[in-house]
Specification:
The radius of gyration is 17 Å and the shape is globular. It contains 9 helices and 15 strands. The chain has helices spanning about 45-55, 85-90, 95-100, 110-120, 160-165, 170-175, 175-195, 220-225, 230; strands at about 10-15, 20-25, 35-40, 65-70, 75, 75-80, 105-110, 125-130, 135-140, 145, 155, 160, 200, 215-220, 245. The chain is α/β, with parallel strands linked by helices. It folds into 2 domains: about 5-110, 2-Layer Sandwich (Nucleotidyltransferase, domain 5), CATH 3.30.420.40; about 115-225, 2-Layer Sandwich (Nucleotidyltransferase, domain 5).
Length: about 250
């Protein structure tokens, strides 16, 4: 059995537009250059696994797999996948499918949860918001992942949730000026509701924010977040994180 000090982690960040991956060492540093592939439109579980297989075909020498997924996960099972084929993913045990396909232990969590583990300071109550195809959130207390809440699907107004209000489609429809006005209001709302000590903004659209942020808010990149694939294996096995082994 390999010493934990020499373990390697295959980190996969599944997004609505791209699937990203690298191999991390025990310090969370990338052993190979960050790679990505387009996420198939209206992707099913088979589509996602095939895309992963293509993406990592030249990867080798990893011991465990970490997966961030854009939806609600419970015990490694996908409950929702709003920016993929939601019906096909409903109640699909994606962690078991990946573990069995690639013959390695898997930990699968929401993508904001995994990204957060890579960027937080581990002091106080911290929140991560991802701004990409949709809107993702994660919460941490003194570095420990808290149970995931799909805050993206809270209604902003009748018939519109946060995903629809400030996701990619809203940005395209509203334009950058209106979108930034919306983002500013959303950040004020979550500051009042969560009362976080620190907030980290990630995802492809975070760099489009053009107003001044409070001192306790920081914009971070996807490359920073994928480091969470190593930290995910530092979490206790339990309600928030579940290890699934190959069958």
């Amino acid at each position: 059995m390999k010493s934990q000090s020499k373990e390697k982690y295959l980190a996969l960040d599944i997004g609505g537009s791209h699937i990203k991956s690298t191999i991390l060492n025990v310090e969370g540093k990338m052993d190979i250059e960050y790679q990505k592939i387009a996420t198939p439109k209206n992707a099913t579980p088979d589509d996602v696994i095939t895309a992963i297989e293509t993406l990592i075909k030249d990867f080798s020498n990893y011991d465990k797999i970490s997966v961030g997924f854009p939806g609600f996960i419970k015990n490694g099972v996908v409950k929702t996948a709003p920016n993929l084929n939601n019906e096909a993913f409903k109640n699909f045990n994606l962690s078991q499918a990946i573990a069995s396909k690639f013959k390695k232990p898997v930990r699968l969590v929401n993508d904001a949860d995994m990204q957060g583990l890579g960027v937080i300071s581990r002091v106080g109550l911290e929140m991560v918001i991802t701004l990409g195809t949709g809107f993702g959130t994660a919460l941490f207390m003194d570095g420990k992942l808290l149970p995931h809440l799909e805050l993206a699907h809270l209604p902003v107004r009748e018939g519109i949730d946060y995903d629809a209000f400030i996701g990619d489609k809203a940005l395209d429809k509203d334009g950058i000026k209106v979108w930034n006005t919306k983002i500013k209001g959303v950040l004020e709302t979550f500051n009042n509701v969560i009362n976080y000590d620190s907030l980290f903004l990630s995802g492809g659209n975070a760099k489009r924010i053009n107003f001044d942020l409070d001192d306790n808010i920081k914009v971070v990149g996807n490359r920073d977040g994928i480091r969470g694939g190593m930290f995910l294996w530092k979490e206790d096995d339990g309600y928030c994180v579940r290890t699934v082994n190959p069958i």
